[in-house]
Amino acid sequence: MDIAANETVGERLRRIRLERGLSQRDLASPGVSYAYISRIEANARRPSVKALRTLAKKLGITAEYLETGSEIGAAETRELRIADLELRLRLDGDVPRAELQELLDESLADADERAAARVHIALGISADLLGKRAEAIEQLERAIGFSFITPVSRPDVYLRLGHLYASAGSPSRAVELLERCLAELTAVAPDESATRVRFSTYLSYALTDLGELSRARAVVSEALYATQERVDPYTRVRLYWSLGRIAGEQADSRGALESFRRAVALLEATDDTLHLARAHMACAEAALSAGDGGDSDTAATHLANAERLLGPSGPRDDLAMLYRLRAMSATRSHDYELAEQFGRLTLELADDLPTEAGAAWRAIAEARAAVGDPSADDAFREALDLLHNHGSIRDYANLLRAYGRYLREVGREHEALDVFERAANVASNLQGEPSTAERDW
Fold it and tell me: Could you say which of 3.30.70.1350, 1.10.287.3240, 1.20.1260.10, 1.10.260.40 is the CATH number of the domain covering 2-68?
């Protein structure tokens, strides 16, 4: 193959002809004279497509091999390269992005839309793994612009894009996308119950972030009714997770912790350490959100488990959440110096995670307020700017209440009253009350 690839067409034709024991006259046929063959072998003439096919047939090889030295065409070669890079991305989480870009350019130049779509997806996943959220969104949006990349054919692409929208602080875009996916799935593949649950749970997360708790509950309830007992453990984990998030937004910390603990129990029976770590962090957040300052001991246990499972080189987003929860836990335990340290570590990782950054600034603000540091006011304002635009309604309302308490403690009563009023107005936008049936599910 190496020899063939380095030959000219004429050299290749002569070598194979001699290997077959044929003369130029033996290969000649109407339209392809022996003189024409002689000129090709002397590299004085490039054969036409018709001549290539005629000669290849007589030699018992493909026209592609005679022309290029390869048994497969450019499109097939490109497809193999893409498949190899996709496998490396799945196994190693890393690929040479320059090679992907080269493949994309080739695909677009040859109008090979299916190859181009696959490369856009690979580039999007790669960018997401590298923490380049804006680039990941752009690449995946281009991928779904091809009509054949649908919620039915590639649900993973739409789910990743919805998650990226939500984590980038745009839950409304996630809701719009996922509702469209569910509608198409219902119309085209109504029996795809597992995929339906996945879209439903992601949609419930985005609705919860928007404070639309009644709609979030309805989506989860419909998914539960549709699947009934025909669900695998991962589907049950997703449903518990949805219920936990809804309960958390409704200030039902006990219900949230119970749902997340059920998710932990299911995940402990698998080898999925990443999702188990995330479930432990969800339990820690629910424990820290409990009344009377939260349950710091329970939170510490779950955070220790999460840290052990993630390790020092875990995904950037997950480490940002872990450090933010560590900062919250340190504040609750009155270790304000440690809270500041973990808050700063979170900010280093959360440059494109506005919700995590806002929560980290809140932990820093509360730590500074506790030691009488006047820069607490600036930290509260940083948190307010971020969570007002990107946080959930409940997170923003709780932050306003914390800021109001701070203002009252430093003697700024009139400002505190205004902030408490804003908190009440924001909290009134939370739609839906806790459901006993959901808490006991």
Answer: 1.10.260.40
